[in-house]
Batch of 2 targets.
Target 1
Amino acid sequence: MNRIIALLLLLLFILPVTVLSQTITFSDYERDEGTDMNFEIIGKMNGNFLVYKNIRWKHKLCVYDNEMKIKESVNLDFFPEKTLNVDFVIYPDHFFMIYQFEKKNIVHCMGLKMDGYGKKIGEPIELDTTRIPFFDDNKIYSTIYSEDKKKIMVFKIQKKYENLHMVTLLFDDQLQLIKKTRQAIAFDERRDNYREFLLDNEGNFIFTKDRTPANRDYSNTLHLVTKAPLEDTFAYHAIDLGKKYIDDVKLKIDNLNKRYLINSFYYNKNRGSVEGLFSFSWDKINERQYISNFIEFDDSLRQEARKDGSLHIAFDDFFIRHLIVKKDGGFLLAAEDYSSQGRGNNSNPWNRWDYLSNPYSLSSSSYYYYNPYYGYYRPFSNFNNQSTRYFYENIYVVSIDKNGKREWNKIIHKTQYDDDNDNFLSYATVNSGDEIHFLFNADSKNQIISDQSITSDGTSKRNPTLRSQERGYQFMTKLSKQVGARLLLIPCVYRGYICFAKVEF
């Protein structure tokens, strides 16, 4: 009798853990899919999972079933040799593949409809062409789409003398052209930054422009730039910063409440330290400012966020990573402490300005290809004479209400670093509806994932860690993609090959 009672008590303790545990299913790998392979997780369609893979001149689509077994491996042999980039817009039973290639100094932008098994529906159609000078960058077309995916835009930007020449092509969800426009924009490459190109559900094209007093300064002027679907020109809306400065501008569309959200860390003086968060909202219906607020960070928050040094510089290495809109018009913002350190004879010290002038936004050093939808995989190679150590540390999470007021703050503590490769660092988010999960590698071998979640009222908790029953799988968590309400695909490295893990919460 005592043994039965003891067994029942044991089951009571075991069962809750079982309910909270996660299921991990790994895909197989192929011998040619090493760490020099480029890939993108497309998503889930018809119960299958689609992944695009590029190995040198070869392109293919792999279709995985629910057990992560390959059902189809489709060679995209119709791609020309100089295919430069591929973007995807996915729907429940089909997707569009938009790609660009160069032939005889002409860049062609093509569109193709495909089904959930990687089979062509019709033939590729030419969306646009551009003749480029011999030494110019040939990756010039970017693809964005609205949240409901009923509008798709392909745009290109080319610098000519002191202007940026922008061409926009707005399509419907059948890839039928709605409107094409051309416009020249004044551009001072030492002072102007154009960032965050997005498309709302009505087809409005929006982005931001900030301007610095001089090269390598913080910005002291900011504009929201909009273009209505059938208009030919851009409208510039000045945003008052007072006498404050900003640098890393992030734009988000709130389609439900018809607002555009802009957030940035701010400074009281040029080249100073981060003082707090600037939060701005634009009412697109009435075409006016809805909220504008400077939220100062107090010493207690700085104390919890800092890793070393004085309190005043606690947020100087933080960068905004995610912004999640709530139904009532508020939002959650997440920022991460990131830095790097050169370890060679010719290494330079960490510089925030250099990091912000990266090739994935239209800043003073780059004005070509832009993609806001996924993290970038860096193949495992280092051709430099110096080594770089990457540091990804604490995560700052703040809830802002619909009136721009701070509701609560949270600091998620973590310490991560690696040399010459940051694919295993940083974090991913999973929105399960009632809470946001923050996932990041919790051990030096990148085989255990920590799962910490935060609810809408700021309650945080530690969930059971994700770990494989099989050894040797290293998770590239920051490159994962949520493909269902409680479903995540995570790229992995196993014995030098890339595979994928399906995680069910």
Note: The radius of gyration is 24 Å.
Target 2
Amino acid sequence: MDFQTSKNLGGIGALLMFLGPLLTFVNAFGGLLSLIGFILVLISLHSFAGIYGESGIFNNALYGFITGVVGGVISVGVFVITALSLLSDLGVTDWTNVTEWTDLFATEAAAFGFIMDLITAVITALIVLFVFAIITAWLYRRSLSMLSSKSGVGMFGTAGLLLLIGAVLIIAIGIGLILVWISILLVAIAFFSMKPMEAASTPQPT
């Protein structure tokens, strides 16, 4: 794949990732759009890893994707397992049995204890997700920093740093998600700002 095609794929992919969350509020197509955009960015990074002779440009992004998926699966698993274990300990074995649920909330103390334990399970799952989100963002930043160094487009490095800061601030949902979203737009701009490597100049005859 040539330089121009890789550049366009990366820019278009990042733009799709940027627009995806906006369309998600309208319908589920936004999530699919973001996924397609991310795949295009990965393809672009793989191409640039070959163009610049730096495998870390693609590998770190790929590891970041894998880490993000694993983190999401583990966090969901932690919540589900904890919730099921909690219900089992409280005697709820059949979710369709109204009597068991009625007995569970028979007293205010029992209801309060169940709610607090459930909140603890949610917080634990969110902590796991938070840790994996930071690791994922750090890997993406490494990929973007390498691409910035090789291409000479400093905006890649800025986007990577903003992405990492957004992941750290993800606990403050509004601020963190907004920074991550802005970093994706910067990645798109950076891709479209790339210029081909200049060919080495041949010595002029004296």
Note: The two ends are 38 Å apart (CA to CA).
